[in-house]
Structure formats: C-alpha cells, structure tokens
What we know:
This protein is α/β, with parallel strands linked by helices. The chain has one domain (about 5-235): 3-Layer(aba) Sandwich (Rossmann fold), CATH 3.40.50. The protein has helices at about 20-25, 65-80, 90-95, 120-125, 180-190, 205-210, 210-235, and strands spanning about 5-10, 30-35, 50-55, 85, 100-115, 135-145, 150-155, 165, 170. It has a nine-stranded mixed sheet. It starts with a strand and ends with a helix.
Amino acid sequence: MMRPLYIFRHIACEGPGYLAEVLARHNVPSRLIRVDAGDRVPDSLEGCSGLVFMGGSMSVNDPLPWVEQELSLIRAARAIDMPVLGHCLGGQLVSKALGGEITRNPVKEIGWHPVRGSNTAGAARWLAGLASQNTLFHWHGETFSIPTGAEVILENDNCAHQAFAIGNTLALQCHVEMTAPMVSEWAALYQHEIANPAGAVQSAAEMTSDLDTRIREAQQVADVLYEHWLEPVLR
C-alpha cells in the first residue's frame, strides 16, 4: 500500500488546491497536517512518501515553533532524496532548510505575472514540453536564495528566483496550486494588501478577470511540474 504524502497547511485558505486534484487523479494518498489548526508536526518521516509545504502570510524568519520543526523534516527528507515540494512560503522553507536565505523581494508581487524557464539543465528537465514563458499567480513580498547544488528553473523580472530544484526537491515562489475559487477568496481575504494596486500588485478586478482561462493555462504548467515531481512517488 502506498504511503501518504504529508501536506502541511499553514493558513486555512491556503490548502493544496489543484494539487489535491492531481493526487486524486493518480490515487496518491495524502495526510493534511493543519498547522494553522494546531495539528502536531510529525517528529519523523516514518510512514510518509514525501513532503508538501503550502503557503501562508507569515515569514519563514518569524519565531514560530513549527518553523524549525518543518525545517528539520525537510533536511531529513533531502538527506535520503525523499520528494519535497514547497509552494511560496513552502518554497522559502525549503530554501532555508537547505542553507538559503529569505529576504525582502525588490517589489511585492501579487496577481498574474509571466515567468520564463531559466537557461539551466534542471529547467530543461522540469519544464519539458512547456512554452518558454507562461503566466502564473503570485502573492509574495519575500524571496529565497538558491541553496548550494540547486538550479534555478523559473524566473521573471519581478523576482529572479521563481523556482529551484535539487534532486527530488522542488521549491516554488509562484503559486501553481491555484483554483479559480482560491484566487477570488484570496482577493477578498487579503484586500488590504491590494487596496492601492500599482506596479506588480494587481487589483482584485484585474486578477479575477478572465479567470477560468488563466487558471486553465496555469494548470497546464502545474500538471508538468507535479507529474515530474510525483515520478519517484509513483514508482
């Protein structure tokens, strides 16, 4: 019987989203660890087949008790090349666990913005079959550095490090897990952050315009990334 993925949720509205649909498609079991609801972070990797870390409005640099617990799990997983996947805050957790730094991004990036594949061998592997540029969803004010041995695979003009990979570990700054309801929910819940849209910060109306088309195109990117990441889980 396949062991479940552990999926760590840090805030109620930032769950696995589209990833849950992909896992269901492949009959991959998962266990949702609701850190926001007080669920205990497991002490070990025993019983799981991989780790997934979702986003959140907090910072990896905040003195939160679960941050160090999750960093320890990521390091243990990376030591045995167990698959690890991070989204936004989750990607920053992965970077910090592997020796990277989390700092303020030059601009706050919120809404739909283009990303392009990097000129690395890792990008060629992870993005095979995709267009050179795709529009994805973003909501972040911080950014991660690239840990030693990892390769940048996605970048854009707002944020040089949109994704990196090392072995079976994939860290994303952008949000490929989005569904249309999630975009609308975030626009409402975090309206204070988009009250004065400018530059790389879009208004609620802008980010929800033609939403079904945008989501459909973004999920094509998600499919490629998730399918590649799931390969060792499905073996």
